[in-house]
Amino acid sequence: MNQPSRLFDIPYYQQENYPKSDAFTSKINGEWIPTSMDVFLEKVNAVSKGLIASGIKPNEKVGLVSANRIEWNIIDIAVQQVGAILVPIYPNISSSDYQYIFTDASIKICFVGDEEIFKKINPLKKSLEHLEVIYSFETIKGATNWTKVIELGEATNIREVNERKANIRNEDLVTIIYTSGTTGNPKGVMLSHNNLLSNVLGSLPRIPANNKDRALTFLPACHVYERMLHYLYMYIGCSIYYAESMDTIGENLKEVHPQIFTAVPRLIEKVYDKIIAKGEELTGIKRKLFFWAVGVAEEFELEGKSFFYKIKLSIANALIFSKWREAVGGNVKAIASGSAALQPRLARIFSAAKIPVLEGYGLTETSPVVSVNYANNTKFGTVGPLIDKVQVKFGDDGEIMVKGPNVMMGYYNAPEKTEESLTKDGWFLTGDIGEMVDGKYLKITDRKKEIFKTSGGKYIAPQAMENKFKESRFIEQIIVIGEGQKYPSALIVPSYAFVREWAKRKDIVLGETNEELILNEDVIKRIQEEVNALNEGFGHWEMIKRFELLPHEFTIDSGELTPTLKFKRKFILQKYAAYLEKIYPAV
Known about the structure:
Blueprint: H1 9-17, E1 24-28, E2 31-35, H2 37-53, E3 61-65, H3 70-81, E4 85-89, H4 95-105, E5 107-112, H5 115-121, E6 133-136, E7 144-145, H6 147-152, H7 158-166, E8 173-178, E9 188-192, H8 193-203, E10 214-217, H9 224-236, E11 239-242, H10 249-256, E12 260-263, H11 265-281, H12 284-298, H13 307-327, E13 334-337, H14 344-352, E14 357-362, E15 369-372, E16 391-394, E17 399-403, E18 410-411, H15 415-421, E19 428-437, E20 441-447, E21 452-453, E22 459-460, H16 462-469, E23 475-481, E24 489-494, H17 496-505, H18 514-519, H19 521-535, E25 546-549, H20 569-575, H21 577-583
Parallel strand pairs: 1-11, 3-4, 3-5, 5-6, 6-7, 10-11, 10-12, 12-13, 13-14, 24-25
Antiparallel strand pairs: 1-2, 8-9, 9-18, 14-15, 16-17, 17-19, 19-20, 21-22, 23-24
Helix pairs in contact: 1-9, 2-3, 8-9, 12-13, 12-14
């Protein structure tokens, strides 16, 4: 077939050019079960016929709330083919957010993955005037199984599906993705076939994978980043393997031996922390060799290093980093990192270990990729060169503005918000502050809304500081605060596991609970030493003057993080107000 012009053309393009028996592979009852592209498309067309038989008309909204699984992709393509609009939703949001999204989008039918999600959404059904039926992928008491849709379509002729497809244009709306905003209600980002397809084609030269490779998927497909990459994997003929869960990633990497997978910085940090923890357990020459290799990796540059350094790195790779590569399956060509800022130090270390981390930048509103580092064109500390056909310019305050075929159609049911974010000549205002490095590489310095002033009138960019302080193995999470105060301070979540291991080595008794750990004077003193050392990299007005340790990690479930792992800063400040009062006591 010709080059795809709509998203649903992509699997057919793969079927013709890279017919595969393992286009999609799932682990079922302990065994990896492949599905060919032929079988996948048979199921897609069966569901498309069922949707028509169910009365779904073009532009009506279909909800999809599920973890990653082959049914997710089947529903996605099937909905597209009948001209309906898919509304993918995170499985772990609040009931109020579900209520808002279902109401705002007028969702008519919804597919859910499992019983837990069904029990969240089903009680809301009576208050959702447009929602007619909820289908479940798993067999659940009281729920209609999704196979019912296929049964409904048995009497429908495939010609009706093909007629619908023929009327769908490249520029038509294909999906509404609700952003997990840090404040206020989610906003529905309207994306066309062209928005996402242009991003697939623009990202194509940056991905070091081909039709012989395997990709492991575990980041939520409801997020535009992973979803776009699924289309890209299909386009290049790369087999998609579904991880069982976030808890089994390590095991699944060793089973699948993927060439590529995506990750968020938080996950990369956790992988690194586990590796370092293993190193800490070593003794004698093995321990010295391990940390010597890490030190070599910290000095890594892609070019310009001496012959002597290259020899050292070669030894480090042979003796130490080869084991790191085995831990991620042994075949990884690249890890694509996005959604938040990655510590440059980690990008450097993993690249030295021949596990390149390709950091990129984008937003839901840009479908998502704006720029990304790639093989032989990487600069640590940046998010890489712009992809093809995407332009960037900077506002007077440094705000990044983006223009290109990837920029959204607008926000659904929110013309005033669209007008605030899109200029009349098509520039999208990202809300991020940045600059170009060497005239080529985009660098993000902070979020415009998160930069704050101290009472002395000095600007503080918290994200950049937080990223630096997280380089400490003692610090798991940190949020920099101090708007309107004399000096910046921080709320710190210690790396509880590492602190306990450190205390054991030092014969320090911490007690059983995190509450006891954060009150221990030795712990406070040691973390103060880390803060003092890292403060040296900042101006005197930026230095963290005081901090409080917290007894619990920031999580999605406890409300401090969005589903994309960004801080809900306002919520955090309210929740931990008592700690703030200790730092900034009332006069």
